[in-house]
Amino acid sequence: MTGVKWQFGKKRCCELDLKADDIFNKWSPTMTIDHAEQDYKMKVRDMTRNLKLTFIWRFNGFEPKDTKIDTSRFGTGK
Which residues partner with 4 through β-bridges? Predict the structure, then answer.
């Protein structure tokens, strides 16, 4: 897995994130067992390639407000 993150704009309000995983498709194991005249061959053909691009824009230093969750019904709160 590899990735690049770039923050820009005033007060770093914008963020561009690029992540890539197994882009050369090298994760494809081949298992072979030869035991007691029995041959087992398993070839995994899974699509594990992944490319993800994320853009985040924060408005005027927005931060979510802290919310209180009522946990009394779970028997954990007082």
Answer: 18
